[in-house]
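Cross-posted from the bioinformatics board.
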Amino acid sequence: MPMTRTLPYRTTAVAFAAAASLCSNASAQREAGAEPPAKIALTGATVITVSGDELENATVLVEYGRIKAVGDEVELPYDAVEYDLEGKVVMPGIFHAHAPEGMDVPNEALPVTPFLHARDALDPSKLFFENSLRRGITTVHVLPGDNTVIGGMGMAVRPIGLSVRDMTVVQDASMKMSVSPRSGYDRMRQMSELRRAFFDLGIDRERLAEEKYEESLDDEPIEVGPEKARELGLEMLEDGDYEATQVDLIRTLRGDLGTWVYASRAGDVVNAKRFVEEHELLDNTVFVIGTEAHKAAPALAEAGRPVIVSPELFHRERDPFSGELVETFVPATLHEAGVEFSLLPNPSGSLAEAEPTYQAALAARNGVPRSVALRSITLNPANAMGMGEDYGSIEEGKVANLVVLSGDPLDFGSVVEHVFIDGILAYERTRDPRIQRLLDLAKRHADAEAEDQPEPEDDEDAPADEDGSDEDGSDDAQSDSDDDGEGDAE
Amino acid sequence: MTCAFRRFGVVLSVIALALLAAVATPNASAGSARAGIGDAQPAPSFAIRAGRVLTAAAEGPIEYAPGVIVVRDGVIESVGDRFTEIPRGMRVLDLSDATVVPGFVAASSGIVPRRRGVESVSAAYLAVDAHDPYADHRPLLAEGITTAHLGPGNHKLVSGQGAVVKLAGSDRVLNARADLSVNLRDEVDTPPRVERVLLIPSPDNEIKPSEPQRPGGRMTRLLGIDEALEASGDGSGWHERALAAAWDADRPLRVRADRAVDLNQAITLIERHDRDGYLVGGTEAAKLAEKIERARLGLVYTLRPGFDGVEDLGDDPDALEQDLRDLAAFEDLDLALTLDEREPLAMLRLAASMALRSGINEARALAAITRVPAELMGVSDRVGSIEAGKDADLVVFNGTPFDAASRPIHTFARGEHAWGLDDDPSSSGPVVIRAERVWIGPGNELANGELLIEDGKITSVGPRVARPRGARLIDGGPGSFATPGFIDAFGHLGLMGDENSPGAGVSLSRLLGPDREHERRVAAAGVTTVVQSPYRFSGSGSRLSAVKTSGPDRESRLVDDAAALGFDVRSLDPDDIAGRLKPRIEAGQKYVAKWTEYQTKLDEWKQARSSGEATESEVQVEEIEDEGSGPDPLTGTWQVSLVGDMLPDAIEGPVGINLDGTEFEGRVLHPRAAEIDHRIYGTLEDNLVSGTLEIDTGGQGYPTFEAELDGESMEGTLTFLGIQLEMTATRTSSDRVEFSLGPRKRRTTGKDGRPLPPKTEPDLEPMRAVLEGSATVAIRAGSAQQIDAALGVLRDEFDLPVVLIANEGFTGVRAASLAAKKVGVVAPRQIARSGWVGDEYRAELVPVLELRDAGVHAALGSRAEDGARSLPAAALYAVSLGLGPDEALALLTSDAAKIFKIDDRVGSLEEGRDGDVLLFKGHPMDPGSSLERVFITGREVKP
């Protein structure tokens, strides 16, 4: 069904700036955004800024795609389009910090593929993005999955746009690795292969450096030893000198990209930490953890790096002695240990768990403070992705990614009514064909029931009233059964 | 004074709660200075006093008995004999029943699975990568294993690098790269070919056929290693480089070889390359023992005892009978013992115990699972023996470590309590008590026996009993003698001098809570059970409860809430005795009949329901009869007032009473009080009014009162939970009172036709217990005539079990008649005296001897509170006067239990009885014997 084509935001497509520059500075790439839209003002709503207090009856003024002002005494320009949102709640656009779902297949069959890029497998027409938008997600981190050794590069996208280029927010965001065994591997082999990839890179880099130095001499005789030559050559090496399969790993080592390491178990966290420390990658590392890894919460806190929690939030295991099932709520453990974590929607869990706000509410219900729960789906993932300066909260100067809800985000009864991305009205519930169709169906069903309701009261009229078009036979049958019922009663 | 009686009820409830709260407050001295082992965790500095310390040290003493270990910050500071100085203020764990050994070191384990990856020779696989420092190894720690080797597997020629880790604590890795794992076994031959997957094949980067790997068989194994070492130069691949790095780092070789020929090859390999290393082998190692010893190579001997069931082993060399005898002869051989990875590692100690069969002595067997493997694996600076400077990895055993029945009760890893009972040693975990003589009951003695106490009950008695996990062993040692706890058959413990005479509805055991100092003193003297009796019996009978003298709460201290129903006939004319006793018995019989009827109806109803018959849904109501009329001394309306210290103001109120025979029934007449139906009932005997007031006391029982009737007024006391209030009343009308509720009715069936139980009447419960055979009637009588009269009613007429609480004047000369009537006797407090028996003057009159000669079951009663602790001395006195020592024991234990029908709980050491055990040095009735330890329901009592 070509439903996606009929969505409103598709028709209000906006021209984007040119493709991301080749400049390796990631934050510079983020500047490459949309053509600034008109001035808009969201007034009268409760504003959850995430970075600061929650403001009652406040105004968010957006100019040219950025938040110009937030507060209760904001003067509106005459040309601002005003949205009166009395009784509504405005919060920052939600982040989906780990979404291999954005690609057709999460992982390549090969174990070491640092040269792959999520961009090449991204499918803008995937229902996943449409659903993300519907849930208030404004930034999706599409990256390779966990079944890998080195998976490739991930990117930050908006869930709107007809092409990969339209969607791109940060093109080269992260390098995905895993210290937990991919299928067919054990932990020893996983670590061996991971070390080997960096070892091979080192060998190749030394060889390239020697060659580079030799080249620079222009047939003059070499007067330094091989080690010195390597050292000198290393400084001359540029990205273009490397093979295409290696350059992204070199950029990772240099710190241009986030290193996203998957560690499913607590023991893996130890391995991951040791590995990134050995390669001086810790400052760019983000730990993507499984539930069992909560046992390593103190180690994660010590690392002081962002943590992405698996979509499943409860860890269950049996006590080896008593056989008792012990249940742990992972976010609470992390919070207590002082870890800054991000929560993910759980697309394979229940329908509710697919809502990021539900996951946050679950956290709030199980011992995580409300403010932390809200950060864990907005500012924390933005920080993890290195986008915290421009995204993740409602602050002056930040990109106007805003979600308007009918009520408190942690209230399951609240629904997403509007989504603004870069100041563009990207989603309106009243014009969401899928939702509207569902609501219509529900309404029709309810109406039909309401009509049916009084009938069973009146035995005589019931068969005649209902479904006049029915065949006589069925009418008779119903009358018979009614008679029987009366007989029983007597 | 409106609704005075309602308020009265409230006041009483408050008093009751306050009283209970006071009782329930734990005694301040209950939490003694003894350190709980669980507390050791935050700051692992402590000292252990142990019965025995086996150090497993290479030099210096290997045993201290008893010994002391001082642990500071998780490290052993000193170890020595009992005079070793313990730093001031350091907490001391008293483990004087236990043996402490070093934490076991498993020289091999299956904790990490074999590495995957097809390479036949690689050092790139690190077992430590598969290590989970957060794993919960309690099942291994519970068996004393604190350190283990992790290997990359023994399935490849060079499978990788092994590691040594602790199994508990926060910093577990002892050596991340402990060895290079070389395997000379059949399994390593003909490994799969290596295929290289090319990403982008090109003329420079051609697809090559897969490459074969060494070894093809035994002949090419060493060749395979040598080739790999030669190939591992610059420009070579990852796995070869890793091998070179490990080789250059002088990683010790850990060579696993099963057959003698392979072991030979292993020795060659190590010697040819002049490497450090050790061998891991099985049965055939014995053939090469001499050569291994000469090469100064350590040997990890892999045991295969077959704990996990029998399997076909084919030509597996380990299928041969395991025998270490040949190895045992080589005393200089560094021998470590481990279990095959297919066996449950937890059984390491048991497997090592079995090595004793081959002539290896205990010290060597212990070293083989502690110090020697630690040395071979290069971690002996940290673990493997109990020596100053090493980690405090300690295992506390409830016996000798190589006794199969012994088990660890605590395991410490670097001073942290890694496994064990988390309470202090006097907790109620399973206990095994061993004694040279175990006096189970009269004529039933066990030499060198053991008792197992679980959940407070004796679950096993015999020469050797099981040791459940966590069981402590209490070894009485030479000359030890275990008996059941002694019973004070008539005492007043817990009354604190309260001389009230409560009715049969009041249980004195309510006064008990956690044991108090003076109660513990009684327990520590060996008296573990007291038949608790009021100082004075109520005219309508008083309840006697059997309680323990020590315990954590009331519930656990209660043996029998209604052990006996006591009547005092000492002040009665013998002719009146029958008249006093009979109505109580008859009332009891009526009450029992109600219950019997209910039981019958219930059975019928159950049967009817299970057979599917339609049950009557109509609720049946019985009318409570109220017969009789006419003026009598009691019937009418009484204005009652209560005064007492506990009440701020006097409480007054009208009460209507109707007398029926000797029983009366009435209501508190205040309109609002009447709504809640405060019933008052009791008996009128001569001019003594005694009864019960049914008010809401929150389940604390009902207040009882006794008053003397004097014409139109009465005066007396109302008692509730030991609190007394003065009661006075005057009759304002002698008209029969119509209760506002009309005839009392109550439902007798539930909604589904189920019969409802009759109303529980606390007053009659003891009598019901007597009539049903679970309690006894205790009679206090003075003269022989009184005794005869009482027995005439109780024994002859109603055939009830009777205990005579003998008066001081009791001589025992008429014991034969007591024996004939099967009456138990609590002997007089005075063991011997002089006096007249009939016309004869006796200089020495010993009632217990008379009773024994007549064959009467007798017991001793202290007639005191904490004075009960002199009861054993009284028995000793009796022994000195001619009572047999074992007869004296029976007097204090089994006989006392029998006459009060509490012998299903106490009085013997048979299975199923409470774990009340006294441990003496010598026979308890030898004056020189001492009572060493006291256990009540398995918990040790410390005064």
